[in-house]
Task: inverse folding
């Protein structure tokens, strides 16, 4: 004889299915009224696909309703106290920078910063003593950030490592986090002598510039990406007082994403050109994907080990240890072996 | 698709309304809910749907063959083959890389090469949960304690979206009977469902993620940089974080199911009030612990064959329980620690005087917290460094009033007597539908405002 073992229902008042639908409907109506613009914005931030279509199908009318009634603004004022203070309302955003230029674009002057003194056979200018390293980026920055921090902590050289990875963010989608503004905030708060930046896992979004939408991954898109990256580099280098270590993207497994990573890497190289004296491009592309071929495992110290995560984008713990070597080597070249562990 | 997301907020109301509308027509309802659950799963990765479907087909074929087989031996062989296929899927996707890396390392020591290519295999979300449920179905059918379901019912059982991704692990005989007759639209625990969703959101987004950002992640990433006060802050915060994260998810899952007329088993019962490790396992991830008990510990012989075999069975059960969480030595060590503690308690039972309740609580809580170190640390080296920092003097740099309130508040709520909390819950549950909906909207709005720019981090148990 088979006995059913349905768990006991919860105690307390039970209502009807109609009440369940009413409760959820009331919640939905209130959210559409007060969060309409947020739903629309969330949809616009999503990668193309049926989920985005679904969210925008609701978000567009809800956003329009919210715009008309102004309830979204009322809600924002009411819950402002609950919002964590990221300090991201300051200047330096991409949009502001893009709109500040005139329509006539003069030839940009070439400054001495465009040359790495070592290219000219000269000794590099000594940077400030290394006190703080900022390791930042999107999810790619993890777990590299912890590796860098642990390396410095073990060396006990009095260097502080600040880790600030912003998961799910990208340069091409500033509505979630405007990296132009974030870079300014980070520099103001942390005042790092060295910035290690590793990002690009979520790139490929269309970018809106002066009323135009640039789709990935043509020259227009790469140029705008390079402009934004350059803005960040300029902020991080702090008028020449700091050094920036920008890691290129290891090729991803997905062929569709390989297009994006190629464009991003090309843009990074272009972006850094005026600041060769302070901005170092640390090559992760050839290290992990030599010849542009994706590989999940590679030989490290004679052993074949997995270096990529199962998503085919991120480095795993071993991969981050591999990446740490070139990062520390680049830091050592600027700040010396006494301050940077080997 | 995760529960605290805009996509799900659009998906669920539509599914809920249509589900109740179609409920009087069971055939249409079943097709609809199956489609909705697969759409939910496809949002993670369309390819994983094929695996979910394959697991369903294999286990239904196994159940059919068990029904037709004449001898017990044939039935057992079919069940073993079916469970073997389930475990093969689980093993390949979850443990392949871990297994090959370790075998490779072992073989290299004796001068041989790797036995198979090293691949970073993508882990299908929820795999551990739906394969365990599939095993519970085929085994319970064989045991005669669960009737064979129709293929559609089995597919719904395995894919039902509220429990698909991270449990609770609902047994076939708990869920399938609920599919046999339409849910009664006059008897829906709306209040309990909405209150659970509200509590779950607050636990996950407000408490767990706050503690993770501000106390847990910094110290577990670089333990060398912190001294004992910060290491203890991080450890206690992690104990609270993992409870709020996982029980928060479970609360939301159970609440969503209740709104749709389905009842899931309880998964947490204030575990940090336990006076022994044995009691802890009766209160923590209850659906997993009873699963391990019924499908590993008891079939191994349980405590029926003497002390030595009981301890062996406890260790095997807990080691496998640890490994179930993921392919890493940290989880194995965590399972071994719990197995050893359960064995020690078993040996002490009846032989030594019981500790006073306060001392028993403190010892249990301390043990559970310390065992979280290898569970949370990214590798055993880091776990060891973290453990050392617990006794290394250093300044207090992480503890803020917010962290203290979150940790002490959650732990205090575990320790207060049942009655006052039940009274509060009953009051909330009794609110009318409009008030419940409004409360949910206010909670969602506040929770959304509390999320920093980089959105809600995934639930910890998604990786398992």
Result:
């Amino acid at each position: 004889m088979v006995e059913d073992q349905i768990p006991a229902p919860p105690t307390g008042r039970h209502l009807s299915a109609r009440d369940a639908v009413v409760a959820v409907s009331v919640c939905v109506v209130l959210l559409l009224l007060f969060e309409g613009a947020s739903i629309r914005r969330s949809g616009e931030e999503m990668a193309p696909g049926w989920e985005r279509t679904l969210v925008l199908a609701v978000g567009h009318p809800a956003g329009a309703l919210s715009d008309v009634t102004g309830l979204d603004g009322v809600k924002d004022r009411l819950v402002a106290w609950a919002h964590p203070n990221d300090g991201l309302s300051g200047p330096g955003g991409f949009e502001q920078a893009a709109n500040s230029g005139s329509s006539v674009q003069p030839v940009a002057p070439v400054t001495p910063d465009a040359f790495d003194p070592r290219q000219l056979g000269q000794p590099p200018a000594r940077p400030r003593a290394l006190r703080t390293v900022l390791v930042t980026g999107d999810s790619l920055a993890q777990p590299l950030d912890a590796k860098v921090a642990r390396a410095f902590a073990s060396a006990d050289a009095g260097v502080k490592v600040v880790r600030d990875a912003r998961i799910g963010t990208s340069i091409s989608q500033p509505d979630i986090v405007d990296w132009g503004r974030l870079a300014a905030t980070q520099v103001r708060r942390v005042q790092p002598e060295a910035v290690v930046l590793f990002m690009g896992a979520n790139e490929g979004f269309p970018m809106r510039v002066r009323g135009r939408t640039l789709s990935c991954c043509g020259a227009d898109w790469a140029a705008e990406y390079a402009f934004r990256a350059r803005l960040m580099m300029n902020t991080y280098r702090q008028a020449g007082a700091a050094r920036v270590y920008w890691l290129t993207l290891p090729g991803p497994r997905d062929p569709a994403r390989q297009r994006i990573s190629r464009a991003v890497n090309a843009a990074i190289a272009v972006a850094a050109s005026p600041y060769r004296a302070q901005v170092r491009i640390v090559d992760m592309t050839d290290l992990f994907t030599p010849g542009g071929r994706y590989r999940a495992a590679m030989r490290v110290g004679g052993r074949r080990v997995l270096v990529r995560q199962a998503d085919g984008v991120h480095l795993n713990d071993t991969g981050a240890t591999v990446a740490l070597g070139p990062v520390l080597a680049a830091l050592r070249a600027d700040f010396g072996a006494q301050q940077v562990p080997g | 698709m995760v529960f605290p997301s805009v996509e799900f907020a659009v998906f669920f109301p539509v599914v809920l309304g249509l589900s109740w509308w179609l409920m009087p027509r069971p055939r249409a309802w079943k097709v609809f809910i199956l489609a909705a659950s697969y759409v939910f799963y496809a949002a993670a990765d369309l390819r994983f749907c094929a695996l979910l479907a394959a697991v369903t087909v294999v286990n239904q074929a196994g159940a059919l063959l068990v029904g037709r087989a004449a001898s017990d031996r044939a039935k057992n062989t079919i069940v073993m083959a079916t469970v073997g296929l389930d475990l093969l899927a689980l093993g390949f996707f979850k443990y392949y890389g871990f297994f090959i890396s370790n075998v490779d390392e072992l073989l290299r020591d004796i001068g041989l090469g790797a036995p198979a290519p090293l691949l970073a295999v993508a882990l299908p979300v929820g795999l551990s949960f739906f394969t365990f449920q599939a095993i519970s179905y085929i085994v319970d059918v064989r045991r005669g304690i669960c009737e064979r379901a129709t293929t559609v019912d089995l597919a719904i059982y395995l894919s039902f979206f509220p429990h698909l991704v991270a449990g609770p692990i609902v047994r076939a005989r708990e869920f399938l009977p609920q599919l046999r007759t339409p849910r009664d639209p006059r008897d829906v625990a709306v209040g309990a469902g909405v209150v659970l969703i509200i509590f779950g959101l607050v636990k996950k987004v407000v408490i767990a993620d706050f503690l993770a950002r501000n106390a847990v992640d910094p110290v577990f990433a670089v333990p060398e940089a912190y001294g004992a006060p910060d290491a203890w802050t991080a450890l206690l915060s992690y104990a609270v974080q993992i409870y709020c994260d996982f029980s928060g998810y479970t609360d939301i899952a159970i609440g969503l199911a209740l709104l749709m007329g389905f009842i899931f088993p309880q998964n947490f019962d204030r575990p940090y009030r336990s006076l022994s490790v044995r009691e802890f396992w009766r209160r923590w991830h209850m659906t997993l612990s009873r699963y391990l008990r019924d499908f590993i510990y008891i079939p191994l012989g349980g405590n029926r064959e003497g002390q030595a075999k009981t301890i062996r069975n406890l260790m095997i059960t807990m080691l496998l329980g640890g490994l179930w969480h993921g392919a890493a030595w940290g989880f194995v060590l965590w399972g071994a620690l719990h197995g050893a503690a359960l064995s020690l308690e078993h040996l002490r039972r009846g032989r030594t005087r019981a500790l006073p309740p306060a001392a028993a609580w403190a010892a249990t809580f301390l043990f559970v917290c310390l065992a979280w170190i290898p569970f949370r640390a990214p590798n055993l080296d880091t776990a060891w460094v973290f453990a050392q920092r617990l006794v290394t003097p250093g300044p207090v740099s992480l503890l803020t009033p917010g962290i203290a309130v979150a940790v002490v508040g959650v732990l205090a709520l575990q320790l207060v007597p049942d009655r006052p909390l039940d009274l509060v819950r009953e009051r909330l549950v009794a609110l009318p539908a409009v008030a419940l909906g409004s409360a949910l909207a206010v909670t969602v709005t506040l929770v959304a405002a509390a999320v920093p720019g980089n959105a809600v981090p995934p639930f910890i148990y998604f990786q398992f």
About this structure: DSSP finds 19 helices and no strands in chain B. Residues 190-463 of chain B form one domain. Chain B touches chain A through 86 residues (CB under 8 Å).
